[in-house]
Design goal:
This protein is an alpha+beta fold. It contains two helices and ten strands, in the order H-H-E-E-E-E-E-E-E-E-E-E. 29% of the residues lie in helices and 31% in strands. Strands 1, 2, 3, 4, 9 and 10 form a six-stranded antiparallel sheet that branches.
Amino acid sequence: MATSRDPRPRRARGVTLTEIMFSFLILVLATLAASGLLSYGHRGTAKDFRMVAATQILTDRMNRLLKLPYASHSAEIEPPENPRNFGPTTDGTYHDIPYGVATFTMAGNFQVGFTLEHLPVTFAVQPFLLSNDYDPGIASSYRFAATIDPSLGQFNSADRASRNFYRVIRITVRVTWTEPNGVARSVEAVSFKADLQGA
């Protein structure tokens, strides 16, 4: 049996140059978008790493300052009304605690400074009186004394002649750095050192 052939020419199978170029353009655009996203992510990760490094430096300095006794800090603050600043524009050590420029591997340089300052505190102790028939369930059997007894301890920030004029030191630690884009950043922590021994 004879077969009849289609008189129309057969269309060649394959891709045209236009299709290849269009596909390549899509690939290039997708690659550029992905590389931009990766670059943005890397910048964000590096920024976070600098923040972590600064926080670690801050924690280290604060812990080491809090470890020192009250008397060591108090001796550095003269006169008592004036705060004592260490760094960040000058380099040095305070009881082996460095301040000034701190270099953190892979994160760059940081400026570290801290301040010690006496914090005036005012309070007094009012004696607690118990009657002979004291009963914790009866409020009238216990009361505060009518007057304050200075011998039990009195702090008065307005009267330097009073006992224990200053007995709290505020410690402030600050770490600053500059991002590659020129933006200044910083972290700061505040804590307190109290003299629980008295003088």
